[in-house]
Amino acid sequence: MDTYLAIASRRDQRRYRPEPLSDDVVGRILDAGRLAGSASNRQPWTFVVPEGRSRVEAVAKTVYVPDNVLGAGLVVAVVVTGKGPVSFDAGRAAQSMLLAAWNEGVASCPNGIAERDALHATLELGEEETPVIVLTFGLPERLRDPASRTAEDWSARANRRPLGDVVRRLP
Ligand SMILES: Cc1cc2nc3c(=O)[nH]c(=O)nc-3n(C[C@H](O)[C@H](O)[C@H](O)COP(=O)(O)O)c2cc1C
Question: Which CATH architecture describes the domain 3-152?
Answer without folding.
Answer: 3-Layer(aba) Sandwich (3.40)
